[in-house]
Amino acid sequence: MAPHPQKLTVTRRAWPLARPLMTPHGVQTAAETVVAELSDVESRGRGECVPLARYGESTDSVVAALEAIKGAVFSGLNRDTLQQAMPPGAARNALDCAFWDMDAKRAYRSVAQLAGLGAAAPLLTALSIAFDTPDKMAELAAAHRTRPLIRLELCGDGDIERVRAVRQAAPAARLIVDANESWSEAQLRDYLPMLVDLRVELVEQPLPADADDALARLEHLIPLCADESCRTRADLDRLDGKYQAINIKLGKAGGLTDALALAAEAKRRGLRILVGGAISTSLGIAPALLVAQQAEIVDLDGPLRLAMDRGAGLRYDGGTIHPADPTLWGGPG
C-alpha cells in the first residue's frame, strides 16, 4: 500500500511543432500528449506519453484507459502491480513513469539510484530528418553537416535518391535509416547493396512487421533493427535470424519498468540496442534517457521539433543531450 492515498490526474495537451512535419500518413503540426500525475499529501510524480496510432491508440483511448484505473490507484496500485493491471502501451507508460517519479521523490533518491543504475551521463543523440523530397532532406542535412549521426525517416519509392542526396550533403556523418515498414522484400534486396555503397550503418524496420519472416532468407549486408517487430520481451524469440538490433521505445514497452527489462534481456541475447522516442516534451523523453545509457544508438531529439518545451526541459548542446533536471522528472523534489 502507498503511504498515503494517491490521486491520479490526467491531462491532455497539444504542443505545436516548430514547423509542420511531413510523414508517410500526412502532415503533422502538433504533438498530442497525455500526462498522468500522481499526488498525495507529500509528493507528486508525473509521466508523459504520446498515443501510438500504429497500435490503435488515440488521445481519447489513452485518456479513457487512465481514467478507468483511477480507482485502483487510489486503492493502492503501485509500480509493480501496474505491470499486470494494464497492457503495454502509451497509457501504462505515462503511469509507470509517474510512479517512478513519485517513488524517487518519496525516497529522496533519483530514479537511476532506485533502479540500480549508475548516474546518467550526457549522450550523443541522432539528428532525425523527417521524410521529405530528396532536396529538402539534403538541405537540412547540409545545415547540420557537422553532426556525427543522422537518422533518415523513409517511406518506400525514391528512398535511395533521398539517402544519396543526404550523403552528398553530409559526407562525414554516420547514417542510419528507418524504412517505417514501407519496403517490399524485392526493394530491400535491391536497396541493400546501394545502401552499403552510401555507407549506411543500420536499417530500421525495412519490412512490415507481419511480413518480416522474409528477412531470414536475406543476406544481411547491413545490420537490421526491429522497431514495430519488437514491442516487448515477448517478441524477442521471433527476431532470431532476422534482426541484429532492436529499437526500444517506452511507449511501445509500456513504461520504464518494462523497457529496462527489455534492454537487459536483449543484451543477454547479443542484440544491439537503440533507444528512440516520439515527438514529445522533455517530460516524455527524460525517462528514456536512463534506458539510453545502455544503447549504442540514441534517437531522442523529439523536443527539438516543438515550438516550445516545458520549463526545466532537457538541455541539448549540438548533438549532445544532458540528463534531466530533477525538477522535471526523476529526482527528489
How is this structure best described in words?
- Helices cover 32% and strands 23% of the residues.
- Helix 1 crosses helix 4 and helix 6 (134-143) runs parallel beside helix 7.
- An 8-stranded parallel β-sheet has the order 5-6-7-8-9-10-11-12. It has a 3-stranded antiparallel β-sheet with strand order 1-2-3. It has a 3-stranded antiparallel β-sheet with strand order 4-14-13, with no helix packed on it.
- The chain has 333 residues and is of the alpha/beta class.
- It has helices at 59-68, 70-74, 79-85, 90-107, 111-114, 134-143, 159-169, 185-197, 250-253, 256-268, 282-292, and strands at 7-23, 26-39, 44-49, 123-124, 127-129, 149-153, 174-178, 200-204, 224-226, 245-248, 272-276, 297-299, 316-317, 320-321.
- The mean pLDDT is 95.
- Strand 6 (149-153), helix 7 (159-169) and strand 7 form a beta-alpha-beta unit.
- It has 11 helices and 14 strands.
- It has 2 domains: 7-108, Enolase-like, N-terminal domain (Enolase-like, domain 1, 2-Layer Sandwich); 123-321, TIM Barrel (Alpha-Beta Barrel), CATH 3.20.20.120.
Task: Report strand order across the widest sheet.
Answer: 5-6-7-8-9-10-11-12
For the record, what CATH class of the largest domain applies?
Alpha Beta
Order of helices and strands, N to C?
A: EEEHHHHHEEHEHEHEEEHHEHEEE
CATH architecture of the largest domain: Alpha-Beta Barrel
Number of structurally distinct domains:
2
User: Can you identify the CATH superfamily of the largest domain?
Assistant: Enolase-like C-terminal domain
